[in-house]
Known about the structure:
Distance between the termini: 30 Å
CATH topology: Rossmann fold
Helix content: 40-55%
Largest sheet: 8 strands, mixed
CATH superfamily: Alpha/Beta hydrolase fold, catalytic domain
Number of helices: 9
CATH architecture: 3-Layer(aba) Sandwich
Number of strands: 8
Oligomer: single chain
Strand content: 15-25%
Low-confidence stretches: none
CATH class: Alpha Beta
Radius of gyration: 18 Å
Strand order of the largest sheet: 1-2-4-3-5-6-7-8
Mean pLDDT: 94
Amino acid sequence: MRSGVFEVDGAGLYYEVRGTGPALLMISGAGGDAGYYSGIAETLSDAFMVISYDRRGNSRSTGRSEAPMDLAVQAADARALVDGLADGRALVFGNSGGAIIGLTLAALHPEVMTGLIAHEPPAATVLPDGDPGRDFFAELAALYEQGGAPAAGRRFAETTRGEGTYRWPADLWQRFLGNQDHLFGAEWPGFAAFRPDEAALKSAPFPVVLGAGVEDRGTYYARPSIEIARRIGVPWVEFPGIHMEFLRNPLQFAAAVRVLATQMHSRTGDVPHLWQGIAQ
Length: 280
């Protein structure tokens, strides 16, 4: 693994790169930390050049601001990383808020993408009127105003299936705690207001796949993936496990991503060079 800091407009983005082959950019959700993907990135590095990063204002990256952050800024950061680290083209995987950023990237900067896997984007705005999931972002925003990051963070964990049943890496947990004010203060409004650009996503010149974990059926953050897939006419797939299965069981989750990413890459480009050797 090699790491560094990539300078973008108004921030320095900490990044990690593992492996060689077709580029796979992994965008994290709440907490915005590259450490979420350390296990899965290591496993996939035998076939892909896996790029992960701390999103702007999170963990080891700079650029934190108290002002609400537009999703277009998050998408521009992702595009800059693809341009600078992957020669301008990458398959993108995003989980949770990272899936929302991936969908935004696909709508605004399709030229840098070879495909998108959007895993459990919590796009509450696509849920039906009256659905209790539509109130999630407002509920946590109110909790943050009343009790700060600890109150909002506790409620966030309570609504996410599987959290508390496994241990996060200690360093990742400490960085996440330091990111909570940035999450609920600066990033929350953008995630709450997200509406997928259906026209742009329907016309994307690359494969788009939505998906959710088998143990998350019925949750407010899994159901939007089905609705978005239906609206834009793309495949939906079921992944193993929970919202953060890549932390709980990175080997199992990586196996699912490997199959899907390989299929998507082979549809849009040549067979990776590392597979083109002559059998002995």
